[in-house]
Specification:
Ribosomal Protein S8, Chain: A, domain 1; 2 domains; Hypothetical Oxidoreductase Yiak, Chain: A, domain 1; globular
Length: about 350
């Protein structure tokens, strides 16, 4: 799928996003936290979960489904766990708060779990896992979502795409990280094909009868996403639903509203979960990072398949894209630029690069 792109300086994109969020009533700090999550995601080349989503968040902020002045807080806690209530604040703010809480508790407990309720769509799970890796911990992040994914044997959506991410600190190498949906693809990728009026692979979606289809327009009302690897993605989704929604006593499955298509004046009630493992309390940190570096180099050095130029580690492509974006600007796809332009028009903002 070929897409036109436009190169945007990272600082210019950050300035625009912060101004848009401040115009909706977010504090300077909450606007900064949200912007950093979205723009960082774009620098990784994950455009389905970066600034393309900003217009949808702003719509909910202006309508009241997201509370601009809300702040997440710890509702209950123990030495190695906490439950955070997001109070319908924008999802990035609540998620950063929750992962930072997990990291703080893991400093003394060694490992910590923080569950979140009353949040919203949080963008890319990998961003939050990497917050732990930045302070030399192993991080995990996950969230539930409104049902959009069928499971083996069903012809209707049962679970959301329920993403999962992990990040592992290294020594001289980049952190290893992976961010995946429980579905074959994220719903945002299907929407791109809809915008381009192009068919999708028949391994992505099922129609209203639960039969595989290449028609992107069955999603999300007439059909559903498939889980990745059949029962394996299904099992992942069930685990994530448990840790995010069931354990937090938050909303689950059909109780969650879609953040794009539902009434923007109502909270979506998404839930999430974050884990931090303090490597240094379990094993000497320098030795661990050295072992990770050795593993990375060993994997890269393995014999390559016919036609393959190199072997990538999880997250390696994203790190390379980020370095290029920071040096040369972010090559935003046309549909992302169009979304940002529409947002600028709605808010009466000007941006020379649009």
């Amino acid at each position: 799928m070929e897409q036109k792109t436009k190169s945007i300086p990272v600082a210019a994109l950050e300035q625009f996003c912060q101004a848009a969020l401040r115009a909706c009533g977010l504090s300077e700090e909450h606007a900064r936290v949200t912007t950093e999550a979205l723009v960082t995601t774009d620098t990784f080349g994950v455009f389905t979960h970066g600034t393309k989503s900003l217009r949808g968040y702003v719509r909910r902020l202006r309508a009241g489904g997201l509370k601009a002045q809300a702040a997440p807080f710890v509702a209950r806690e123990g030495p190695a766990w906490a439950i955070v209530d997001g109070q319908s604040a924008i999802g990035m703010v609540t998620s950063v708060f929750a992962m930072n809480t997990a990291v703080s508790k893991a400093r003394t407990a060694g490992i910590a779990y923080v569950g979140v309720r009353n949040s919203c769509h949080f963008g890319a799970a990998g961003y939050y896992a990497l917050l732990a890796a930045k302070v030399e911990m192993i991080g995990m992040a996950m969230a539930n979502d409104t049902p959009s994914m069928a499971v083996p044997g069903s012809k209707q959506a049962v679970f959301g795409t329920n993403p999962f991410a992990y990040a592992v600190p290294a020594g001289e190498e980049d952190p290893i990280f992976m961010d995946i949906a429980s579905s074959a693809v994220a719903g945002g990728k299907v929407r791109i094909f809809q915008e381009l009026n192009q068919k999708v692979p028949d391994t992505w979606l099922v129609d209203a009868e639960g039969v595989p289809t290449s028609d992107p327009f069955v999603y999300p009302y007439k059909g559903a996403l498939m889980p990745f690897a059949g029962h394996k993605g299904y099992g992942f989704a069930a685990m994530i639903e448990t840790l995010s929604g069931m354990l937090t006593a938050g909303a689950t499955m059909t109780q969650i509203r879609g953040w794009i298509d539902s009434d923007p004046s109502l909270p979506t009630q998404h839930c999430a979960a974050f884990l931090a493992l303090n490597v240094g309390t379990i094993t000497p940190l320098p030795e661990f990072k050295g072992r990770i570096d050795t593993m990375v180099r060993d994997i890269r050095s393995r014999p390559k398949a016919k036609g393959a130029e190199r072997i990538y580690l999880p997250g390696e492509m994203e790190w390379e894209k980020r370095r290029q974006a920071l040096a040369q600007g972010i090559a935003l796809p046309q549909e992302v630029v169009a979304s940002l332009q529409a947002l600028a028009d709605e808010l009466g903002m000007k941006a020379a690069w649009l």
